[in-house]
């Protein structure tokens, strides 16, 4: 009865359609899947149909790109109303800004490597939230790097001369918007230090004060020692604790259900949300 609450489809930087992702989840014995594409809910419709036909549960979600004092923060929103005005306008703006920023990165890279903007777009699904993973795919296709991981280890790191940061909102604001949309907010991979600096404890506390609902404790990017501390923090503040794979299809080594969420936590999460219901499960 595995519950995996954080995965990506081709509507962001996963490599499968929502239908393919849900079908694979059902085949691998997952009971409840969360679809959490970056800054979009465009995959929800297809995922709902696929989950109903496969007979598994679906938690509709989204992963919001934020920044706290210069540090990248990913905020998971679960079961929010996809038509809530402020949140929807915010992620629509974010996707538009991503196009400009990602294109600028490609223009910089194109001075030294055989990549084009059209080539990068060819690696993204229609309507997809564009980002560095799609540049990585174009670099792989051009034979510049072996895979996405190699691209992120070199040319696409935040320290790279080709890097351009994303204009993003504060997680404090995003937490409020998620709540107003009837959703539940969970801080994704809070101690993912290999991605860059992580939010100091004071920042996590500020997010909790702003109404954060949970912490994604069990995630491969949180070092094991950090997970112990995160679990304590969550328990002290009566926050939800989740565990997830952050599956991106073939785009990342993460495997479905490599970390999972306790059924009691999912029950609490669903009870706290009022935007859209949990499907089946
Ligand atoms: P961006 O939002 O455009 O700055 O790109 C960040 C995205 O790249 C996140 O969604 C991650 O899932 C993805 N990412 C980060 N590191 C890696 C990696 N080593 N391999 C593949 N994808 C990565
Ligand atoms: Fe991603
Ligand atoms: Fe993330
Ligand atoms: Zn993710």
Which topology does CATH recognise? TIM Barrel
In CATH, what is the class?
Alpha Beta
The CATH architecture:
Alpha-Beta Barrel
Continuous helix count = 10
- Spans of at least 5 consecutive residues whose pLDDT stays below 50 are none
Q: Look at the structure and give the mean pLDDT.
A: 97
Oligomeric assembly? single chain
Main beta-sheet annotation = 7 strands, mixed
Number of strands: 7
- Taking all Cα atoms into account, the compactness measure Rg is 18 Å
Structural class: alpha/beta
Q: SSE order, as H and E? A: EHEHEEHHHHHEHEHEH
Proportion in helices? 25-40%
What is the secondary structure topology, with strand pairs?
Elements: E1 2-4, H1 18-27, E2 30-35, H2 44-54, E3 57-68, E4 71-78, H3 85-110, H4 117-121, H5 132-141, H6 148-153, H7 171-180, E5 184-187, H8 201-209, E6 214-218, H9 224-236, E7 240-243, H10 263-272
Parallel strand pairs: 1-2, 2-3, 5-6, 6-7
Antiparallel strand pairs: 3-4, 4-5
Précis, in short:
With 281 residues, the protein is an alpha/beta fold. The protein is built from ten helices and seven strands.
Task: Describe this structure as you would to a colleague.
This protein has helices spanning 18-27, 44-54, 85-110, 117-121, 132-141, 148-153, 171-180, 201-209, 224-236, 263-272; strands spanning 2-4, 30-35, 57-68, 71-78, 184-187, 214-218, 240-243. The mean pLDDT is 97. Helix 1 packs parallel to helix 2 (44-54). It is globular. The chain has a single domain, classed as Alpha-Beta Barrel (TIM Barrel). By secondary structure, it is an alpha/beta fold. The structure holds adenosine monophosphate (AMP), fe (iii) ion (FE) (2 copies) and zinc ion (ZN).
């Amino acid at each position: 009865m595995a519950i995996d609450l954080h995965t990506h489809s081709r509507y962001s930087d996963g490599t499968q359609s929502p239908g393919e992702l849900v079908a694979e989840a059902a085949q691998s014995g997952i009971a409840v899947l969360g679809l959490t594409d970056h800054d979009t809910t465009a995959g929800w419709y297809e995922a709902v149909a696929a989950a109903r036909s496969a007979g598994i549960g679906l938690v509709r979600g989204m992963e919001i790109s934020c920044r706290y004092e210069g540090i990248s923060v990913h905020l998971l929103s679960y079961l929010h109303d996809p038509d809530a005005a402020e949140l929807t306008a915010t992620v629509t703006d974010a996707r538009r800004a991503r196009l400009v920023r990602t294109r600028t990165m490609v223009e910089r890279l194109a001075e030294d490597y055989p990549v084009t903007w059209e080539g990068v777009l060819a690696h993204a699904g229609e309507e997809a939230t564009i980002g560095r993973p799609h540049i990585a795919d174009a670099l792989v296709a051009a034979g510049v790097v072996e895979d996405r991981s190699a691209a992120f280890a070199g040319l696409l790191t935040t320290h790279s001369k080709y890097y351009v940061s994303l204009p993003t909102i504060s997680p404090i604001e995003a937490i409020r918007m998620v709540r107003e949309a009837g959703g539940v907010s969970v801080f994704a991979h809070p101690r993912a230090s290999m991605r860059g600096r992580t939010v100091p404890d004071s920042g996590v506390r500020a997010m909790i004060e702003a109404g954060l609902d949970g912490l994604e404790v069990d995630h491969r990017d949180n070092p094991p020692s950090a997970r112990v501390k995160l679990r304590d923090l969550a328990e002290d503040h009566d926050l939800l604790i989740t565990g997830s794979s952050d599956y991106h299809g073939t785009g990342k080594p993460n495997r479905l259900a490599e970390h999972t969420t306790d059924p009691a936590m999912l029950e609490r999460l669903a009870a706290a949300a009022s935007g859209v219901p949990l499907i089946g499960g």
